[in-house]
Amino acid sequence: MKKMNLWMLACLLLAATACKKSENGGGDDEKEEPLPVTEYQPNTTYATKGNQVKLIMGDINSPIVLASPHDGTMTPSNMPVRTNANAVTVRDLYLTDVTEKVANAIYQRTGVRPHVLINYVERARMEPNRALAEAYHQSEEANQLWREYHAFLKGATDMVAKNVGKGLFLDMHGHGHTKHRVEVGYLTSISDLNGTDAALNNRATVSSIYHLSTTSPYSFSQLIRGDYAFGTLLANEGVAAVPSKQDPKPNNDDYFNGGYCTLTYGSRNGGAISAIQLETPGPTFRDTPSLRTASAPKVADAIIKYMQTHYGLFIGK
Ligand SMILES: [Zn+2]
Questions:
Q1: Which residues partner with 56 through β-bridges?
Q2: pLDDT at residue 99, as a whole number
Q3: Where is region (Disordered) located (predicted)?
């Protein structure tokens, strides 16, 4: 697998620009060259300076993007800890390991490598799952790393849109709620989920799987808690999940319905890439290596069945 360090690339480009300037005699009337847009290639790993964020671009025919934004442990001194009272700083323990294991299991079962994005910096210092204005970073370096994270995520989802035409982005998280079940987030509100199927069917347009709902033969409420809903497929694998056929409503329990990345890279605002935020529990899913080894292939199997049922992909895998 080829490796390209974006920082090195930037240095090379700067060197090239400097070289060009000297050839032109360095006159004051020169126009500044626009920064080139990176042409992402499949089967290539991209990293920011110091490997703080890494994008492992998978196979060209991958319909799947996986991201682990909140399990970073790096503590760069030029990115101070966020101290704003609204800044959530808790780490999502072991989600990078879970994400890599899910990606490997998908590859083993389908022969297709998903695109994988990892943030290695502490969430306390850089927060990818909030709008930049609400990340409350303490430095421009953190802002810049946020921009690079999102450039990578856009690059990965654009790769899917361009080469497959439709796809699924799964944002991987961990919660500390009392009920040990995966919270499957589509941006759909708790009150909508707690309502009737008839009312829920009118809420597809404001969900992160809106595009999927326009191509699927299933009603939106079926996509949320019917036989082939993502939560149902997880529960069929033995991974408790809400909403699902087995556990259709969050009721009054804690439940996350998806954050900034699910909103930005899903299909609520257009496009053919849908998004789901998976909030996983600790004690039954990821807190030990053996739990993660058991859980990750189940998530992969649910993803594959979801792609078969709703996208017509991975048939026969
Ligand atoms: Zn998280």
A1: 45, 116
A2: 98
A3: 22-43
| Residues 111 and 300 sit within 8 Å (Cβ to Cβ) | no
Same domain, 104 and 183: yes
Q: 185 C-alpha vs ligand 1 centroid, how far in Å?
A: 12
Q: What is the pLDDT of residues 173-191, one digit of tens each?
A: 999 999 999 999 999 999 9
Are residues 243 and 119 part of one domain?
yes
pTM, two decimals, is: 0.89
Ligand 1 centroid vs 90 CA: distance in angstroms? 8
Mean pLDDT computed over 213-234: 97
Query: Whole domain around residue 29: which residue ranges?
Result: 1-36
SS3 26: coil
Q: Please check whether residues 123 and 69 belong to one and the same domain.
A: yes
- Between the CA of 70 and the centroid of ligand 1 the distance, in Å, is 5
Question: Domain check: are 72 and 17 in the same one?
Answer: no
Note whether residue 58 is domain-resident. yes
CA of 204 from ligand 1 middle (Å) equals 24
Q: Which 3-state string (H, E, C) describes 196-264?
A: CHHHHHHHHHHCCCHHHHHHCCCCHHHHHHCCCCHHHHHHHCCCCEECCCCCCCCCCCCCCCCCHHHHH
- Residues 77 and 193 grouped into a single domain: yes
| Helix, coil or strand: residue 74 | strand
Q: How many domains does the chain have?
A: 2
Question: 256 CA to middle of ligand 1, Å?
Answer: 10
